Predict the 3D structure of the following.
Amino acid sequence: MKAIEIHGSTGDSTILVGESIRSLKKYAPLERMVVITDENVRRHYQKDFPSCEVIEIGSGEKVKTLESVKEIYQRLIEIEADRSSFIVGIGGGVVCDITGFVASTYMRGVAFGFVSTTLLSQVDASVGGKNGVNLGGYKNMVGVFNQPQFVICDINLLKTLPEKELLSGFAEIVKHAVIGDPHLFSYIQENYKKGFLLDTGVIKKLVSDSIVIKSSIVNRDEKEKGERRKLNFGHTFGHAIEKTTGISHGEAVSAGMVIASRLSRQMGYLSMEETEKIEILLKKLRLPARLQIDHGRVIDALGKDKKRNRVSINFVLLKAIGHAFVKEISINELGEAIRDF
Ligand code: GLY
């Protein structure tokens, strides 16, 4: 097992890669524990849950709303949860986001932790302290920065994941390599087939190296005033593509990373060889490098962020694989960049 630390303004968070869901009772008091989970995770893994109150929510991004939050608050009141309770989210990104928000606000905040059950949430969504819900069609419009006391990344739980879910996780792993670690990039090139087969050693390394990159950035810039923006590599176009096409997060981020790499190339920062390397690796990982998109709608979505109309964006570009930087670019320029995509 590997433990990685985040030192946040609200407290420290320990991310435990390779720990088992069955060890949950080592990290939180069983007698005061309340679990929040979704129907899929409960179906597969309830046998491994500690015996405590369980609150079940629906699954998918559609349940990441204030309505779900209100239902959970009501249930917490019914079961007489109080400030001494310890709330554990067992699930993927949606469960972790909602759990973190509920725990941070119920009775002005109770202790919480996560058992992260998808590759995407292990390498990204459960780590970093952002917790929140969507509002009025805008992603993560309401939320808090608050670090979970622990995140258990149990590699064994990935065995029941559908392939699409696994691929979404791989897209974020490539993102971490591309923004911060050329050695991890080479490792993925050499080991992705074993990764697909969920080889324990390979997956553990991919998950823990990703978390090391993300957590070291979060340790330097928890509230996203500067460097943390690098974690948005591929996500500016990715979110706009996800919103306008309805494809999965990982697929959209993959296409977004290809656009951002090509733009880095066009602007003279990234070599052709490295631009192609990124595209080739994503294709090997069965992630899209090219997509049919409605340019007008994508550009429109790009300009609208949390209800504001923007004229420019802090965009993440590459100087090399492993070296990202942020530059303000106008929406018009970005629109031009995707015309020939
Ligand atoms: N909870 C996800 C993040 O902080 O990035």
Remarks:
- The chain has two domains: 2-160, 163-340.
- The chain is about 45% helix and 20% strand.
- The two ends are 42 Å apart (CA to CA).
- The mean pLDDT is 95.
